[in-house]
Amino acid sequence: MSGVTATTRLTVAQALVRFLAVQEIERDGTRQRFVAGCLGIFGHGNVAGLGQALAQYPELVRYHPARNEQAMVHLAAGYARQRNRLGIFACTTSVGPGATNLVTGAALATINRLPVLLLPGDTFATRRPHPVLQQLEVPHDATVSVNDCLRPVSRFYERVQRPEQLIPACLEALRVLTDPAEAGAVTLALPEDVQAEAFEVPAGFLEPRVWTVYRQPPAPEALRAAAARIRGAARPLIVAGGGVIYAEAVAALRELVDATGIPVAETQAGRGALVSDHPLSLGAVGATGTAAANRLAREADVVIGIGTRWSDFTTASKSAFQDPGVSLVNVNVAGADAAKLSGLAVVADARVALEDLRAALAGHRVDPAWEQLAADESAAWAGEVARLVAGGDAGAPRALPSQAEVIGAINDAAGDTGVVVCAAGSAPGDLHKLWRARDPAGKGYHVEYGYSCMGYEIPGGMGVKLAAPERQVFVLIGDGSYLMLPGELVTAVAERIPIVVVLVDNHGYASIGALSRSVGSAGFGTHYRYAANGSLPVDDAAGRGLADADGAGALPVDLAANAASLGARVVRAGSIAELRGALADAGGADGPVVVHIETDRYAGIPSYGWWDVPVAEVSDQPTVRAARADYERNATAQRQFLESADD
Ligand SMILES: Cc1ncc(C[n+]2csc(CCOP(=O)(O)OP(=O)(O)O)c2C)c(N)n1
Ligand SMILES: [Mg+2]
Description:
By secondary structure, this protein is an alpha/beta fold. 36% of the residues lie in helices and 17% in strands.
């Protein structure tokens, strides 16, 4: 060792940009650039620091101006998910409101285990001009800044108070961002003075660095125990989660299923892990599950979760599995998820575990009667989907199309390789049930349901399109979600990102309206209507808003005109036929296309799973008392899964 280290004098922001440009990720021998670019909105907290550095090195890290900080994190999350966590965006913001706008996006990324790098500006490390514009002052603690809001929603958080601190902070950030068991939002808060401060940057920090994702093999004892439990099962069922897709384990799953005859149900993130026309594909499970999957879930005696975090939607609030002796096997790269529901924990990469399980189960096949039941239910469900997307069961006669028909049209337009993107409202549940998954890699279905965040849809879809430009991307969005973050359409126009947005207008919250009626509250506050006589309208079971009865009516809101005003190409579809035509024509666009269609807000599809939403225990309203009685009856199906994992 010479003891002399070559250095370059750079600002913290310049060093950070140069570091990000040379990070690479490798899995299965394939190496690729890790940081796709930097999204941002400038203010005094980053314009002279990161803004200057990005302007100095435009060829190193491409800069994309966004319109809203929350939206840019959604874009980054959509991108990371489509890339199976092998690529990220960085997001730079000013101090104060720009930084706190990140919080919702960060929570979404962390909950969905998706890597995003957040670089909020922060108040001066020197404190010299304090209080600076937009600074929160907490009288008893000078170290607090609004960026502390990002701590609970970040998998790693650091405030870089001195230039030298950038180096360990960046290395730790990249370790977390590239680790599938840790991935989530990573926040490096950058005081605005520190961003512009120069230091001697060691050459090694600026040299290319490869982060290798090793596939974690299962502990041999855990794998043996899992295989023994599956061999001993009379009615095994796989629940495939997002981990199957992120680990690129879709082919391995299919091979295991073909070899053993174990049927597969899917979570939201895992939807499409097995193509829908496979005879053992049961589709969605849980609160938004299919009749097929939930039937087999009720009867299964061993449930094998692979890459799932077991949210309440997946377990139907712990009512989905009803066999008295049911036990779980949990294959997961994250120990915390593997341990859930007292499952037999197999901490491992999904693909390695599936391959090892197939070897350990060689020669084993499930009871033919169980396999036949799955095939029969799967076929029956395919028939039910065909009926629903053709407009069946939606309450006749209807002047407007149902959302199920809209989904059928998008599914057809998407073909084998298109991607549907969605997040909140009634569409995620309908999609979970109705979507026919066709993409062999399982990348055609992208519903963000960890945070179910209204407003994710458009920027999330943009991220998907940037990650997979060769695929057509269809964003399905409700009018309520659209109103949360329509502004990112301007970014899609500016960056020429050709997503197709299907804007389903049903004048408010069809989902929460139905939920409200189910808890006895008559859709109160869920229908977009003029307030009448100082009171909000209800939206009763017959579909009449009381405000309408009072003479008030629909709001004079034109969302199609809104989208057009933001620069999108807009089509007003007056029927499903017009929708299908618009989707077919959207192909060659060089920017966003928004297809607006009005649907019947009361035309829902049947439900086969329970969701625990507590109903008022006492009330003067008879509808609420009836809903409470239902609630108490349904809750008796809830289980606690306290059996020892070793039983
Ligand atoms: C940011 C955010 N706020 C509130 C909610 C609760 N929420 C879930 S769905 C929904 C209504 C969605 O309305 P819309 O997009 O029109 O879809 P629809 O219910 O009509 O299908 C609301 C308010 C949420 N998921 N996200
Ligand atoms: Mg709506």
